[in-house]
Design a protein that fits this description.
globular, 10 strands, alpha/beta, five-stranded mixed sheet, about 10% strand
Length: about 375
């Protein structure tokens, strides 16, 4: 029996405004383009958020009395929820309905979808993780048990910090350079590297994204030059059934449905049919990440040294998508230096502006690979 986890990253950044430095301001409109934020959010709301959440609600309801049910998980950033409160209360209500079902798990994140885990000191990262956990409790009434760092950025130190914060498991990319000959379709544990790490059972579980199968949906679905186009639900379910391992973790941007892959591509028909085709196989079953951790034993360790930090971005699957050129590195250093000043001032509004500026998207938009 292979357990299938279907997981979605749900995030929108606050997009930067054109501005010139003229002292320090606590006014968000000086830094962020509210008109553009509203326009983008409403466009994606109509094309993705509303239709996709409606489909998921229908599917969960259809399978609730079946022997095997349909389950999904969401990593929802705090910034996204703030945008929902401003421009999409109907979107927020749909996510609340999903969270109320027993078939949905809310995954931990950094509140601002930031690169704070890459700071030399980890206090800011810890604060943002705790802010997110509190927000999930306030909005959805749940405390996340499984964590996904921003962009799946992971190394041994990050794993240990997340473990100390009480999470049972952490997601990262099933990249060959951290797996070697092994398969991503099993549960692993963080590498033994601290004096009190001897007990295998006390270490955080590592769940690895199967990037090939995830990207078949997320990136290649509408690519007519792909030799597997068109991708149908029955074909994909057959691939899952033929995949060796104990768990297959599918993780993609929620905007895959309707925004990255347009409705005209057939992506919504694919989503509607997928659980029916998957559950035709006796050897396949949907599960939440927490259920995977509870039901499966780890088979080995994952060792990711700090200088080999892994992520789910681009072909390199490292941090070069955000810190690969001088522009990005200069901005990152300036943000770190500003943090020292902001924290000394002890100004809540100023700290919030600074944290919005940490969002990974701003650095990704400077990528020139």
């Amino acid at each position: 029996m292979a357990l299938i986890t279907l997981n979605f990253q749900v995030h929108q950044p606050l997009r930067l405004a054109n501005f010139q430095a003229d002292g320090i301001s606590r006014d968000l409109s000086c830094y962020f383009n509210s008109g553009l934020n509203k326009m983008v959010f409403e466009k994606v709301r109509d094309r993705c958020y509303i239709p996709t959440t409606n489909i998921l609600l229908e599917l969960i309801d259809k399978f609730k009395h079946e022997k095997k049910s349909f389950k999904v998980s969401f990593a929802i950033t705090g910034v996204f929820l703030e945008l929902c409160e401003k421009y999409g209360k109907d979107v927020f209500e749909n996510f609340k309905q999903l969270a109320r079902t027993k078939n949905v798990e809310i995954i931990g994140e950094t509140y601002y979808h930031s690169l704070s885990s890459l700071f030399e000191t980890k206090e800011e990262f810890i604060e943002e993780v705790n802010l997110h956990s509190q927000a999930m409790k306030d909005f959805f009434g749940v405390k996340p048990k499984v964590f996904m760092n921003t962009e799946m950025i992971y190394n041994n130190v990050i794993g240990r910090i997340v473990e100390d914060l009480g999470f049972k498991a952490i997601f990262t990319e099933g990249a060959e350079r951290i797996l070697g000959w092994r398969s991503p379709n099993y549960v692993y544990v963080r590498k033994y590297c601290f004096p009190d790490d001897k007990d295998w059972n006390n270490r955080i579980r590592i769940l690895l994204r199967n990037y090939r199968l995830s990207d078949d949906i997320g990136y290649r679905f509408s690519a007519r030059n792909w030799d597997q186009w068109p991708l149908t639900a029955d074909k994909f379910a057959a691939w899952l059934n033929a995949t060796n391992g104990e768990c297959i973790n599918l993780f993609m941007d929620f905007e895959t449905f309707g925004e990255h892959q347009w409705e005209e591509s057939g992506i919504f028909w694919f989503l509607r049919a997928l659980p029916f085709e998957v559950l035709k196989y006796d050897s396949l079953e949907f599960a939440t990440p927490s259920e995977v951790v509870e039901r499966l034993q780890p088979i080995g360790e994952i060792d990711v040294f700090e200088f080999s930090t892994v992520s789910w971005a681009d072909m390199e699957r490292d941090v070069s998508a955000w810190l690969g050129n001088k522009m990005q590195q200069t901005c990152f250093e300036e943000i770190k230096n500003l943090g020292k000043i902001v924290k000394q001032l002890n100004d809540g509004e100023l700290k919030k502006v600074w944290r919005y500026l940490q969002t990974s998207d701003h650095y990704y938009y400077m990528c020139n690979k």
